[in-house]
Fold this protein.
Amino acid sequence: MTADSNTAPPLLFTPISLRGVTAKNRIVVSPMCQYNSVEGGPGDWQMAHLGRLAFGGAGMIFGEETAVEARGRKTYDCAGIWDDRHIPQYSRINDFIRQQGAVPAIQLGHAGRKASCHGATEDWRPLTDDDIKDGFAPWQGLAPSALDQLPRRFTPREMDRDDIRTVLDAWREATRRSMDAGYDVVEVHGAHGYLIHQFLSPISNHRTDGYGGDLEGRMRFALEVAEVTRDAWPSDKPVFFRVSCVDGKGGIWGLEDTIELAKALKQRDIDLVDCSSGGITGDTDMPMVPRIVQFQAGFAERIRREAEIMTIAVGGITTAQEAETILQQGQADLVGVAREFIWNADWAAHCAKELGAPDPYGQMPHEYAYRLRLREKAKDMPINQGGAVTQAAYDRIFGAR
Ligand SMILES: Cc1cc2nc3c(=O)[nH]c(=O)nc-3n(C[C@H](O)[C@H](O)[C@H](O)COP(=O)(O)O)c2cc1C
């Protein structure tokens, strides 16, 4: 849908308000771990990385999964917000993002049993005693049940009620710090096989107390996290919740379960479900979600329709037309994009141009927009249209041949 085929501005570039927060467009930079934090805190890398994305015109910019407590990290290099000293480190970046016209957003998470490993580039190799000499002692992860997914150095410890209370308190405090750091959106990371997902899936949750068993029991921890987050977060700012709409290959948690979860989240004033998938595997006949174009948009559509809650469609979205069509067809309210932004940080502004949005360069900061508008204008000058430049004028400038 371009301006030629439809005079209404593209939906992708129609501003959207979520409670008291307005994004200039509906493109979201999806959370992306960087494995580049120092004792949880962000530095120049995050400033450059997120700042560059803010230049590129996305309406809302997530940083990375940010641990609510130190042991909730996957690696020593993961981001966290478990201490007040992190607040100014994040607020410096958030101020900058906001100055460029984008909405800063944080994803809060806890790795649970996926803790204590090396990073993505080392294929999540578990930390071992050999790493102690380098200052990277392994630590024990927490989990709803003492079950491991990968062969790791330590089997996770089953959480008792005190552990659950401790993590909920950490979540509340991390939410409060996120507010103090100037974020406008907070998202609970309930997906990808991390702690909340570990409670949801029967593969990883074998508890027999009130936090396990049937769907209601397995959803309890997720809903308690939702409640403390909503409670600690300003009522004029939205709370998102990321789910794995289905487990990974061989899993059990499925889309019908997610729809029930989404309805319960809505009752707890959660504003939006961010629809991802995978992270917990097992040996059932559940297939892996094929990584095709827009591979999770169908989840976003069903949840939006059946739970009547806003959704983000994310996964395999790489063109302006795909993103616009998802919105036009009512599959989602926002479109999340990750890898395409690594390749092209200006993807959002390029989409605006491609869809014929009014003043596409206006999606970028004025320092860039001004020059790009002039560049565009130059294309209309007669000389660039094969038009008349008199020989005399040419000779005057370049010298007579
Ligand atoms: C480098 C990288 C880091 C990621 N880190 C996170 C993360 O911290 N939290 C999360 O929920 N998803 C994370 N994801 C998943 C993305 O948010 C997104 O859902 C996924 O990449 C699919 O979108 P895409 O096809 O546009 O890349 C990460 C993806 C990438 C590529």
Notes: The pocket of flavin mononucleotide is lined by residues 30-33, 64-65, 107, 189, 191-192, 242, 276, 314-317, 337-340 (CB under 6 Å). The first strand starts at residue 16 and ends at 18.
